[in-house]
Amino acid sequence: MINAIILFIFYSLIMNLGATIKECRSLRKMTQTQLADAAGLSVSHLCLLEKNERQPSISTIESIARTLEIPLSVLIFLAAEKEEVPELTARHIEDLSKHIIGLMKLHAQK
Fold first, then answer.
1. pLDDT tens by residue, 61-76
2. pTM
3. Domains of the chain (ranges plus CATH)?
4. Half-sphere exposure (CA, 13 Å, Cβ side) for 77?
């Protein structure tokens, strides 16, 4: 029961998860096939996730985050809509996102 509640809250908060996964995958210079294989998913399932046509389990998101070498909390933050983080201004969210993406690009170059 608690897992169902957590999933409900999680899915109601994450609106851009698919686009965020796709962007992070691109920053890591990974193909869908590479990410899917490394995360233990089928390519078709990953494709549907990136299009927001499937709702992933928490374990699937954890596997994707681990494969992308991104903390789960960072992946969720990047996927959050501005309205979902009312404590931060749009400028704060934009600045934090730019810094996180910049760090990911630096890491990808190594």
1. 999 999 999 888 888 8
2. 0.71
3. 2-109 (1.10.260.40)
4. 17
